[in-house]
Amino acid sequence: MKFASVRGRSALITDAGPIDVETSSGGRFGSDPQRAFDDWDAFRGWAAGASGDVVEHRPEDFGAPVPRPRQIFGVGLNYRRHAEESGLPVPTEPLVFTKFPSAVTGPRGDIALSGDTVDWEVELVVVIGREAHRVRREDAWSCVAGLTAGQDISDRTVQQAGSPPQFSLGKSFPGYAPIGPVLVTADEVADPDDLRVMTTVDGEVRQDSRTSDLVFSVAELIERLSAIVTLLPGDLIFTGTPEGVGLGHRPPVYLRAGQILGTEIEGIGAMRHVLVPR
């Protein structure tokens, strides 16, 4: 199943195109994409046999498939080669931070740069589908609503300020958590633990890796996070970024106004954002 927000309304993506959820379900499920996660199992059951008229749409009509998550978890240094390019040891425990929900935006549009040291970080984003606490690794995927593409856009100056530094504020400016273009259930991809992830800047490939290089897999992250906190329906987990970030260049290379940031994850789709001055 593929789920999306089209002009702010819940939509299922069929082979023919998007169909409106509220209309197609006769009002059983509403138009608000966030509310679909309130009873995701029931929603998926209905969606399996859903049909309806395709709504007119353009690529820019797609918004964040999860517009108002209650919690967003980020995981640092969760690709082996990214830890190496950062000059840091591979973590033995997940390095967890948060991105604040006000940073969420959709898969297209402008993103205002907060400064001169703003970096790109393509990430596979996990969307939680049911409340999860103390979940075992072997059961973790049953708690996942689906997967989407994301960018953990990061102001490195803000991120590294202070002693010790903190991550969350530098990663939470408006628009610094773009996700989309759709949410894809795990059964829609050949192997949800091995997906190609890419970033381009003005068409030039900057990151190109696979999620099989994750230090802590999706299931491990859910197990470890849920051992401490309660994961809620619609929560997001940004699972980490591979090597190739701007900070890893010598000298570092950062995003500039006028550039186009491209994001693509195998089986999910692509995002396109124009960087603009603050």
TrEMBL record:
InterPro entries, alphabetized: FAH (IPR051121), Fumarylacetoacetase-like_C (IPR011234), Fumarylacetoacetase_C_sf (IPR036663)
UniProtKB keywords: Metal-binding
The keyword Metal-binding is assigned to this record: yes
GO molecular function, one term: metal ion binding
Fumarylacetoacetase-like C-terminal domain boundaries: 72-275
One Gene Ontology biological process: carboxylic acid metabolic process
Pfam families: FAA_hydrolase
UniProt family annotation: Belongs to the FAH family.
This protein's name: 2-keto-4-pentenoate hydratase/2-oxohepta-3-ene-1,7-dioic acid hydratase in catechol pathway
Lineage: Bacteria, Bacillati, Actinomycetota, Actinomycetes, Pseudonocardiales
